[in-house]
Design goal:
The structure is a homodimer of 153-residue chains.
Chain A lengths: L15 H24 L3 H12 L5 H8 L3 H13 L3 E5 L7 E5 L1 H22 L4 H18 L5
Antiparallel strand pairs in A: 1-2
Helix pairs in contact in A: 2-3, 3-4
Chain A binds a DNA duplex (30 and 30 nucleotides) through helix 4.
DNA sequence: CTAAAATAGTTGCGTTAACAACTAATGTCA
DNA sequence: TGACATTAGTTGTTAACGCAACTATTTTAG
């Protein structure tokens, strides 16, 4: 203990929020690069298409909730996707404020191309971990995700 | 198996890159909020101060490497910190391109305030996990971090 | 010794993100 | 019914990010 007392210095490289952020950014940027180079899609645009692949006909608001992407970003990304005819939009009959979004045929084609690529990438990543570690990671992310929201300070 | 074959649909909420990104963003934004409200510092600014607290006198370039923050962002953040007199800069004698950065007294005071706060936040987060899970997480992040760089596709 | 390559840091610029203000439609309740 | 609140989506503004071009030094090679 010739050094500083142990909470007077912060070692960034051992600090969980920092390490998570570096790891997540690295992974995201690899994925983002592929989407951008091969399909000219941003992560945001892809995530919108991804939820539409799962939940056809949902509204922009529901997309925003499912993707956790702010609604103004959704709005602008949806505009772009509409311009490129990758998605389609109609107005709900019961509620004229509400839009109903879905993948166009072209959108479905791209979706069908990206999904296996994405899953393969995830698999490659997970293959560096043992089966057990994969489950642990799953569990740990769930726990942290559940509680992080309530944390203050 | 009445549904689609298992890699024709991607469930975002189970997709590792997505889950990591959501978790990391949530954690970062809580931390960022505290830094911003209490000290008017962005995450980038704080990270620069954090490495200067650990490594006094290093250059902007070394800060960039250690924080993984792009050098143009470092340059602009350093300018702000200099204006606020939270850090100091001198030119290296041996190499006049090189700057030597360090925390000012005021910077050290703020540093001394933030470090325990940050560590307490990390502790609170980790306390939701068992001792074992904490070690597992450590290990898993290391493994993924090590290999993620080399991944393609 | 000098021309070319490399390095440290700054600046310009286009893209993306976050927040708030706004419009239009719907819901609520006296 | 009719004012008021709420909700869906759009738009404006500002800041953050990331790449590349640029300046000024230093290093390398012929």
């Amino acid at each position: 203990m010739s050094e500083q007392s142990k909470d007077s210095v912060l070692q960034l490289e051992n600090y969980l929020p920092y390490r998570l952020s570096i790891l997540s950014n690295k992974i995201s940027s690899i994925v983002a690069d592929v989407y951008k180079v091969k399909f000219a899609l941003s992560i945001t645009e892809w995530r919108i298409m991804a939820v539409l692949g799962e939940y056809d006909g949902i509204s922009a608001d529901e997309v925003s909730i499912k993707t956790q992407i702010e609604k103004s970003l959704i709005s602008r990304a949806v505009s772009k996707l509409l311009k490129r005819h990758l998605i389609e939009r109609s107005i709900s009959d019961e509620d004229k404020r509400r839009s109903e979004l879905s993948l166009s045929e072209m959108g479905q084609d791209i979706y069908a191309e990206i999904v296996p690529l994405s899953l393969m990438f995830e698999r490659k990543l997970l293959d560096y971990l043992s089966e057990e570690q994969q489950h642990q990671l799953d569990e740990i992310i769930d726990v942290l995700q559940e509680h992080a929201s309530k944390l203050r300070l």
